[in-house]
Design goal:
The structure is a homotetramer.
Chain A: E1 4-6, E2 11-15, E3 22-28, H1 38-46, E4 65-67, E5 71-72, E6 75-76, E7 81-86, H2 108-114, H3 132-147, E8 152-160, E9 163-164, H4 188-203, E10 210-217, H5 231-239, E11 245-250, H6 253-256, H7 261-264, E12 268-270, E13 276-278, E14 286-287, E15 290-291, E16 296-302, E17 312-316, E18 321-325, H8 336-354
Antiparallel strand pairs in A: 1-2, 2-3, 3-7, 4-7, 5-6, 8-9, 8-10, 10-16, 11-16, 12-13, 14-15, 17-18
Helix pairs in contact in A: 1-3, 3-8, 5-8
Chain lengths: ~350, ~350, ~350, ~350
């Protein structure tokens, strides 16, 4: 197992299961001397907290992080920052049969094979989306450190089901006020339609997926390494660590693969004062694995929540027979809104590392 | 710089520039005692070699690999396998002005900033697609080692421009005879249309992109690690190391993000003899980062070749002025067909590592 | 900073400062399905606990570890095991001037430069020997897992000041009952002399150093990698992470460098039943970085405790003037006895990783 | 296998066997824009070359390195530097029986188990001391890059058998003219005695070991990480990769473990102009894993050459019987003099990496 987001300078070791005593993280390598703005950090982490809105799970979590080490008077001291969030709803009986009957499109079955039946199944165990809370905590700190260097990471809901938000202008990313919204979209009108789609899925005992678009602005040209340590490789390795992520594209991505070179290529421009930009940004800010100085833009595909209330076909493993599974408990009909800050967090950790910690 | 494909057991260190004395690789960690089938290896590596077909660059390369170490009588001996391919066309004058005027959507500009103008620009230097030759050599060996364990890695052209091949059936992947074809598609009829699209791009002094679909069959359930060392993370980190790759999706991927959970979830089935499969394979063989035992299926988006003969806007860096660039030399109007074995190679290296080397 | 003991399978991320809210560790990669014997674990970790004997610091620590995750009913579940130990004596005023006047041969000065004066100085901060408590907890679990595979790790005090214990017979290591002793030596008579030397140092407001000898038995031949990933490299990287370790030698080590080859070489023997051993074990169980099947034997040099009550010369950094420093608080006159289980622990973590986790 | 010296920025992947077509290395991560002084590099690498003196093996090697990539006009271009040295004496029949009868204290037996009998035994295969030639090449470049930053790495023979050279003054290291000597000692008189000891061992068909002392000057305070990524950990992991190294100590090392704290502690001094030093340097320039600004001083124990002409006991593996082995070929009676530049090289690679590449 490696639940360590392993950078060259910053390493985040995540621990916990959905119903263990606590979840948390150790953040190793944060630069010393940074004063954390805890109000800002709380505002950030609450963007992923459940129970804020009707599109989230009904499970209420206090999610109050406790910092164990790494700070002196609120300032990073160079030692690893250890933190935990206590689990208050532990060991519920809701999940007892998951070891025997794996939920479709969950990690249950694969984990059962890998861990020889010893995995913690309660609430999804270590595979629970709840494990993104410490990631958000770590990422929220990294975001502040990036902002002190004029680097900003912002994401929005690009689509839910087949409803599309206004995409970012990849040349002049319009990130300003999206993060503050309870439902982070550029077009509130499209946001309304998305919420409708989510609500309909909930009524149908079903779920929907979507896409998160993220932009990083302010990164100078020349960061990243060729071949296997480029910006894309590094972000990809981190972003696929977010539960339910099944796709990732940079710049024009899959759509770009359908274009001609003359359409997809980005002409270089100069302002005559030595500042080189590109007229378009189909390359998503990365050329040959290295930053070009343009905004880094990518999209992350998130599958529909696997836990749905509709009856589903599965196998009762002890008797090796087909069975119909009805998942108990209440689940998000759509995790995409809550995934937005998680994408920002994981991106921020990775980018701070790439910029040297 | 890290041009090392870094596995837990197998590490491939790639070196060379397009016009340096040689390119090559050191493959560290291959298991000892494996007899390499060199005829088969040659057949495999020639699938990416240029000059084989009208859709490839006219540059003829001998591409005869020389093995420097790591074998005794054609059998791996446990020591790192060093190999090189000599560059016969070195230091051509074709590229002399690339340091001054970066090609749109190439690594030239980003590398110029990163390496302070000292990068080797001839033929794209270390960023040249030619560097995929040693990767194919390394991957070709790994493919043989995987096949000895009944694991097969096969890819085909999924699309070029807007022409689609028949996709893989992700439950029963139809990989048998595609690799042997000069133009690796399932539907030869669609292949004809793709070749037409490529030929048209060539005539237009333009280029086209496409998508490669890859499947890995025969991997048992239970491999891979949660969170940041899952199969998706590992393959992603490797695959984005292939030049021109800008997107990656597993299973139903981006299309899956538009579905409902009830559509995207894969029901578990048993054959009554303890063999668990899924009725569909939208999860692409990976659940929670861990293999499910179903085929691993993913698609890689490849941008249109950046080098096109059409005049393009760029900046003459020494004078900081706009200029019109006309790229000399002959270039592939479409690298997608040649990318097919490269995707197979990089996947094979990664999968062999995941399976324990 | 990297306070992560980074194995291929097992990674221990250590956090905490001497006076932070808690210290602890995340142990990532433990195999699932192992039932931990907590009584045995407690017995082990108490061997390093202070306050047990007159040769230890007078600071009493409860050192009750709290397990946060990674277990189900006392059995490892495959998820990272998070644990913490609360610090009860936090933020004492004893250390307030250490930021201004670094203690000789402590990390104070180097940390002050590295962390720009933001390091936590209280009690030595992250550099405190107290951070070895979570390492012992992690190592105690690994020891149990190794014992289940018939691999044993045992250490004893090889010397304190110039008093030598009976060394291990490196061919037939006599480890049986040393660990159970309050003062872990083979020769209790020499142990008495060592305690005398420690007591004398205490009376003199001084300290003494020593050497710990460790043996690993039961490891089959053939583990470890050539060159930079050999057993020696791996153990060395880990063992120099223990505070105060300044030297390490395997087998005959430095003494062996004074011998002739004919004296230092270890003849191979067979029992006629395919079991190959060596007549002597000057190679310390490792040849070419790889285990030979003989006991792995090494010695670790531990410097005398840097904190002594005697007045010492230092520099008052704010005024850049010489000053005489008198270190307050009570400190171990000799940490070697407590280092014995720490050496065992770090060795166990590393060996379990080398054996495949 | 991992024959990769793995830094954060610089990675040296070593390949080759004693009798393979070539040996060599790929040096990944060298900063771009550095003009290599090839004369100086040649002078450095020739210090380890055999055949220069009567204390070396009689095997003459051309050892002419061929650079394959990574340079433009002799200047590093940022791409990995690939190099090889051809083996001219390949596949001699001298070593044919080593697979069957392992040489005492060589890697033969351990490698035979690890690689299931498929290892290359000729000339020691991948375990041959010859593999240090590409390390010296890589280290020689790093030495030049360090010198450009006023960091110097120098080593001398500290002892051979029981003959001691004048040790370094660890506060004011006297490194100036040792490297230029054919026999690198501070005291030529002691050097004569060492040569006598070597010559006597040769006459006796035996060998002798020794100790190399190394000093790094010019490294500012504040480099290195606490716990497992400190300077000692990093150097240890690298230095134990040199064949025959069995011990390592920093500063006062093992001798320091016999001292009192009041003797071993290093008082801090100021020159009144903000320049902090220590009166003595028992800490060897490293406190808490971090540089103190004082010279980094350490000693490396090298075992006597395992290959001796005297008959030795071993086991004939195919028949599982005791046998007397007489090693054919000519071997160094002492590798310590040739190990001096190898220690410098490996140290230089590691220190350049620690300083940021």
């Amino acid at each position: 197992m490696s639940s360590i987001l392993q950078g060259d300078h910053i390493r985040v070791s995540v621990f916990g299961q959905s119903h263990s005593k606590a979840i948390g993280a150790v953040i190793d390598g944060l630069p010393a001397g940074f004063k954390i703005d805890f109000d800002k950090l709380k505002t950030f982490t609450q963007r992923r907290a459940p129970g804020n809105a009707s599109f989230s799970t009904a499970r209420k979590e206090a999610d109050e992080p406790v910092i164990l080490s790494g700070l002196c008077d609120g300032v990073t001291c160079g030692a690893p920052l250890g933190m935990l969030i206590e689990n208050t709803n532990t060991r519920s009986g809701d999940y007892d049969d998951l070891r025997e009957t794996p939920r479709p499109s969950h990690a249950d079955f694969a984990a059962n094979v890998k861990f020889h039946g010893f995995q913690d199944v309660a609430g999804g165990g270590h595979f629970s989306g709840r494990l993104t809370a410490p990631l958000c905590f770590a990422g929220g700190i990294c975001l502040q450190m990036l902002e002190a260097r004029s680097v900003r990471v912002r994401a929005h809901i690009y689509s839910i089901a087949d409803v599309l938000d206004t995409p970012y202008d990849p040349v002049h990313v319009q990130t300003d006020d999206v993060a503050a919204k309870p439902f982070p979209v550029l077009s509130d009108k499209q946001g309304e339609k998305m919420r409708g789609a989510i609500e309909k899925a909930r009524m149908d005992c079903d779920s929907v997926g979507g896409v998160v678009e993220c932009a990083v602005t302010g990164v100078p040209a020349g960061f990243g390494e060729p071949m296997f340590d480029g910006i894309e490789n590094r972000l990809a390795k981190a972003l696929f660590g977010i539960p339910a992520v099944k796709g990732l594209e940079f710049g024009s991505g899959f759509a770009g693969s359908r274009l001609h070179g003359s359409e997809n290529n980005d002409a270089f421009l100069t302002d005559g004062a030595g500042h080189i930009t590109t007229a378009t940004n189909n390359h998503g800010g990365i050329l040959g694995g290295i930053t070009s100085g343009m905004p880094i833009v990518f999209r992350v595909a998130i599958k529909p929540t696997a836990s749905i209330a509709k009856p589903q076909q599965s196998v009762h493993l002890p008797t090796d027979t087909q069975t119909t599974l009805v998942i108990k408990g209440r689940h998000d009909p759509c995790i995409v809104p809550r995934a937005v800050p998680v994408v920002e967090a994981v991106t921020a950790i990775t980018m701070l590392d790439i910029l040297g910690g």
